[in-house]
Structures are given as structure tokens and as C-alpha cells.
UniProtKB/TrEMBL annotation:
<keyword id="KW-0456">Lyase</keyword>
<keyword id="KW-0663">Pyridoxal phosphate</keyword>
<dbReference type="InterPro" id="IPR009006">
    <property type="entry name" value="Ala_racemase/Decarboxylase_C"/>
</dbReference>
<feature type="modified residue" description="N6-(pyridoxal phosphate)lysine">
    <location>
        <position position="36"/>
    </location>
</feature>
<keyword id="KW-0210">Decarboxylase</keyword>
<feature type="active site" description="Proton donor">
    <location>
        <position position="330"/>
    </location>
</feature>
<protein>
    <submittedName>
        <fullName>Diaminopimelate decarboxylase</fullName>
    </submittedName>
</protein>
<dbReference type="GO" id="GO:0008836">
    <property type="term" value="F:diaminopimelate decarboxylase activity"/>
</dbReference>
<feature type="domain" description="Orn/DAP/Arg decarboxylase 2 N-terminal">
    <location>
        <begin position="22"/>
        <end position="265"/>
    </location>
</feature>
<dbReference type="InterPro" id="IPR002986">
    <property type="entry name" value="DAP_deCOOHase_LysA"/>
</dbReference>
<dbReference type="Pfam" id="PF02784">
    <property type="entry name" value="Orn_Arg_deC_N"/>
</dbReference>
<dbReference type="InterPro" id="IPR029066">
    <property type="entry name" value="PLP-binding_barrel"/>
</dbReference>
<dbReference type="GO" id="GO:0009089">
    <property type="term" value="P:lysine biosynthetic process via diaminopimelate"/>
</dbReference>
<dbReference type="InterPro" id="IPR022653">
    <property type="entry name" value="De-COase2_pyr-phos_BS"/>
</dbReference>
<dbReference type="InterPro" id="IPR000183">
    <property type="entry name" value="Orn/DAP/Arg_de-COase"/>
</dbReference>
<dbReference type="InterPro" id="IPR022644">
    <property type="entry name" value="De-COase2_N"/>
</dbReference>
<keyword id="KW-0732">Signal</keyword>
Amino acid sequence: PRCMCSTRIPCGGCAAEFRTEFGTRYPNSRVAYASKAFVNPAIARIVAEEGLGLDVVSGGELAVARAADVPPDTIYFHGNNKTPEELEFALDYGIGQIVVDSFHELEVLDAIAGERGVRQDIMLRLSPGIDAHTHEKTTTGILDSKFGFSIETGDAAKAIRQAMSAANLDLVGIHFHLGSPIFELEPYELGVEVVLNYLTQFKEEGLRLEIFSPGGGFAIGYVRSEPPPQIAEYAESITKYTSRLCEELGFGTPLLVVEPGRSIVGRAGVALYTVGGIKDIPTVRKYVSLDGGMGDNIRPAIYGSEYEAVLASRMSAPPAEVVTLAGKYCESGDVLVKDITMPVVEPGDIIAIPSSGAYAPSMASNYNLNGRPAIVMAKDGDARLIRRRETYADMMMADVF
Ligand SMILES: Cc1ncc(COP(=O)(O)O)c(C=O)c1O
Ligand SMILES: N[C@@H](CCCC[NH3+])C(=O)O
């Protein structure tokens, strides 16, 4: 794996790399950026300019897509409980595909499309019963999951038949997503194989597989000890299995949609913190308190996620001691990096935590009424603010006296 910076952590990908690695191997493919990893209008604009599609999972993400003029036909609307209002918004915006995730949604969407006298393209999310060996809180393709129609229970077959006979819906594709981050290639290969083989029984009943999507979940390097596969390796596995099986099973060459989120923005984001108080408990632990924490990155607290950190204000300072980087929130679990070797740090120093671009800003909160941080986009020596720091007034904006 390559390393693009002094942290020596293997990188994930980037939009162009995804387009190239999938596009050269399987020309009828689309990379749909998963907005949940982090989106705002500036990011959505870049996504559209890079020629990527967009995976959204709420009316809010859809509103950002619309604000940034993302072409609606390149949008895939996911989620296990889209509200009727969100579905109406999606139909108003004319979005390409709604990825239906429950029988209830199938009925509600069919009715809404009917009331409007329109036909809506849909895909179905299937749950293939495959363990992708990721964190128990982020695994989605196993039987015990709230997502998707299970193949094992027979729900998938029922949903496919119900979707094909829906009065106002056109079933154009099938989706599955196994979880995130997935550090192995085999789960994707198995997923493609299991789902495509399963679908053959519906061909005679009229199933059209115009779109096939094995989702996202591609891993990135968070720590040196756990390098991810390269994007080319994911692309090789997925396209090889998809092409071979689609040909063998007579599905032709459906549009292959992959949905990377983390692997596009994760390594692009570096979180910067200022050191405040330092507490040394001799023979136990030295806590270095930062001006952020679980409010801007909840991942260590909920998944036990690990990160590296560097002393950005004095990059050449030699490693000196083991410290724990704690946040400023009122929780003992508010620790960003536990027991890491750093140079001697002092109040006012800047600490950088790489690989913070995905699911840190997007899952940020105002806990303890701390404002969420500013976000600056940088390229070739040029830096621009794409989100300003939140003010106290921002945090009271929706409150009513
Ligand atoms: C349906 C779907 N697609 C894509 C993604 C994106 O995952 P990641 O950011 O790990 O690529 C997710 C989140 O796990 C998802 O649920
Ligand atoms: N939010 C997660 C993973 C779930 C992604 C969306 N299904 C993370 O930070 O790693």
C-alpha cells in the first residue's frame, strides 16, 4: 500500500482512482459517493464535477445534493425507514433510484407514485447472510440485521415478486451492502456470487437486472498496523466476479454501482486539535486534553476505533513518552487515542489526527453544547473554508423560548 504523507499510514482511494480502477475493468460502472461519510454543498459539488453519482440516506442529504445541483438521475436513495415526506421529496426531485428496504416502504412508495401518476425506478436491498468480519455495530449483511430483505427467510423472494408486480414501480436493480470498513476481499466475492446465483430463479418471471450494486464499505488505513487492500484490489475482485457470473448466468452487463464513502473522504481529512491541560498520574497514565473530542469524532467511543496522531506544530520533535489524548467532553470515555508515543507536548501545541475525514464530521454532535468545528478544504497551497465554526447562536437556532 502506498503512503502519501509523513504519517506513513497506507491511504484509501480518491474519486479518480475509483473511477479508473472500476471503469477500466468494467466500463458500465458508476461510482456513487456515499454522502453519509461526510457531505455538505461544497463536497456534493465536487462529487458532481468528478462525475460520481451520490448515495443519500435521508431528506437532509438529498437537500444538500439538490443545493449543489447534483443531477437527480445519478442519486440512489437508501435507508431502512424513509419517511413518506422523504419519499415525496425524492419523487419531486426526480431522483434516479430508490433502494427499497422494507415491505412497508414498497407499499408506501407505490401509493405515492400512484397518487402522482408517475412510475419510479427502484432497486431492492437484499441481505445475503454474509459476515464481512467488521465491527458488530457496523456489520449489515448478516441475518440478524435491520437492513435489507433476507434471502434466508424468504423475504427477498417475496419482495422481488411484490416489486415486479407493483403498479407504479419498476424494479431495475438489486443492491446489497455487507458493512464497513471491510478489510477483506472475500466477502465481496462471496456476496456477488451468492446474490447473482440467487437471482437466476427470477429471470423467467421477468426480473430485469439493469443495475447491480455490491455497496461500499472499502477500508482505509487508520493505523499503521492495519493496512487496507488497495482500491485496485477491491475493483479486481468485484468486477471479475460480476463480469464472469453475469455472463455465465445470462444477466449481460448490468450497470455496476459501487458506493464508497469512507475510502474517498477518510484519508483526505485531518483533524487538528489544540492541546490544553495535561494531567500526569505517575505510573498510571498521562492525559493530554484536546479542545475537541467525542463531539467531533465519536468513533473511538462507540466502536473502539483506533487512530494515529502527530505533533503537527513541531513535526521534527523526537518521540519521547506515552500519552493518552483525551477530549474535552464530560465523559470518561471521551478519549481519542489511548497510549500513543508522542514527543513531549505542551499547552498550545497542535495535534493532528489523520484519517478523520469520514464519519467524524458527519456524526458530530453538539454534546455539552460545544460547537462543531470549522472545515477547511486545501489543495495545492490553496485553502478555503467550506464550513464555518459553529457559534453559540447557531446552537440555539432551533430553540424556542
Ligand atoms: C448502503 C450503503 N452504501 C454505502 C455505504 C458506505 O460505506 P463506506 O463509507 O464504508 O464506503 C454504506 C455505509 O456503510 C451503506 O450503508
Ligand atoms: N459510521 C461508521 C460505519 C457505518 C457506516 C454506514 N453504514 C463508521 O464510522 O465507521
